[in-house]
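Hello,

Our lab assistant flagged a job as stuck in the queue for most of the afternoon. It eventually completed. Since we weren't sure the result was trustworthy after the delay, we are filing this so someone can double-check. Below is the sequence as submitted and the structure that was eventually returned. Let us know if re-running is recommended.
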Amino acid sequence: MKIKLYTLLAFLYLSLSLSAQIDRSKQPEPGPAPEITLEKPFEFTLENGLKVLIVENHKLPRVSMNLAFDRTPISEGDKAGVTTILGAMLGNGTVSIPKDDFNEEIDFLGANLSFGFNGGFASCLTKYHERIMELLADATMNSLLTEEEFEKEKDLLLEGLKSQEKSVDAAASNVGGALAYGAAHPYGEFPTKKSINNVTFNLVQKYYEQYFQPSEAYLVVLGDVDVAAVKTLVEKLFSPWEVAPVEVPVLPEPRSNPEQLEINFIDMPNAVQSNISLTSNVKLKMNDDDYHAVLIANKILGGGFNSYLNMNLREEHGYTYGARSSVGADQYVTRFKAGASVRNEVTDSAIVQTIKEVKRIQDNPVEKEALANAKAKYVGDFVLALERPSTIARYAINIKTNDLPEDFYAEFLKKINAVTVDDVQRVANKYFNAENARFIIVGKGSDLIENLEKTGIPIKYFDKEANPVEKPEFKKPIPDGVTTKSIMTDYINAIGGNEALEDVKTVLTKVDVTIEGAPFKPSAVIKTMSPNKESMEMSVQGMGTIMKQKFNGKEGYTEQQGNKQEMPESEILKKKKQKGLFAETYLNSEDLVLISLISVNGVDAYKIQVDEENGSFRYYDAKSALLIRTESSQEAQGQKITQTTDISDYKTVDGVLMPFTKIMTTGPQIITLSASEIKINEGVSKKDFK
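-- returned structure --
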């Protein structure tokens, strides 16, 4: 017992002595970079040109296989979309194994197998790796391409484009690449309805035969395997892969950066937020001496939460949920980007602040703490990524395809930690550009252009397919005699007249709900009773009711997953102001403001301000007089959130025109309500609002 006590006292004394010697006023010096040891792959090449890399790793009884192609980028031209369709068709059966049997076997073995135009991936337990590699090889060489599957994937791609028609982010991505690189460059082209309809089944087959070549492919096998056994298996399965002459495409020159900073504007009248992106083309390869310094400089500028851009645009000004920057590395050309999605009314200010932060990192040495934090973040992310087999496979392929030294990743963290304050400032001036660059802005022109013109930056206009256009007519003269009262009256008459609307006491609407990006499709029953009672119950097949929202004219609540929350007083006051089921029957035209005549989804519409404080507007088609959009804003967590609802597909129900489609957009979230049935004065009672 004495020995144990003396030992404990000695340990305590030593601990206190060491603590007394630590100066806690100074930040600890970072330790040396972790030693990174990556297994050197066993390499060999088949006679058909397939390059194979095998890495043994016996930590887990699993095996992964990565097939990757190293091709010169391909221009699809007026057939843009062909590689997307082909990629979706691959891996769905083989010439000898039907699609359902193929997928069922993979599921039965608890494996994963996926394909795209640029390669394939498979993973499984060790005991099944021979069969999974056999399926991977069969799908690579003998993929089942049928006209039925082609039509299905083509329709899905067209449907995807249709769902993105009103997506600001999708337009920014497509047009951004086209304006930066040029629409004829492989990095600048994107599928359109016209180009997809130009794609034929024969063309898809031709691309498969022409571009799935073993001489341009790498196969990496990683995991609990024996090198000799895998080599024998690969030779057996992949040697029959026939090689054909490869025609190297001619890569067009990318578009040049502009001579001075300019704004490239794409008008989207439905936008409730603007997507802004400062962009310029740069040349940066992974084997360049500047590569690691650029990674750190970008991390400080806009590569994380504490970056210059995010702390300015999000934390200081509240313009956005997040601001980011990026710099790619590519053998041919890449680009620098910095931007965010911001509220319409602060778009011009966000531009000014983005330029300010780029100039800041160019003109002022970064603080040592910011540099240390950026390095620490890279070290942590790098070490964590090494736990994933896909990372090891990607690193092995990168070394080959990017002409990197064999110790590139082993030395990666040492080079990250060697980046200095001077290095950051030097590469920021070389690769970050706010002068010979373009701001690509997608947003609502009627709300933005006046303030954008005040920045003094030249503005060029483009459509959603990156074609140059004349400056749109954002606001048109309002015809004589048109007033808020006449617009309200015309709308009431258009949907049935005062007498018909007064007879509407209740409305029951059954809707199918589509939430963009959600894996499920709910349905909802919406009930209303004059003057202001509301009920909405949403359900998902197999899950029952997932949400309720009720208002009985005096109070209300929302219930979700058993959690019931009373309706906020502000919302109750807003609902109590409703005096009927059709706002136009009780709104006082003298309290309304006719703002403008503008274009909404390609039609002229009158924009009427209903409530200035809440940013509430209603839009009426100038020709049909129908309500086609509503817009409102509210504060949430210090951010101003705007919601627009596009209203369409009017049909007559008991003598009244009722809209059957509503598309609600709140930031990046898009929810579509498609009515399957609307009933007037039927199926609704007071008990529905309890």
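-- support follow-up --
The delay was a queue issue, not a problem with the job. The result is valid. The longest strand covers residues 639-653. The domain at 42-165+184-238 is CATH 3.30.830.10 (Cytochrome Bc1 Complex; Chain A, domain 1).
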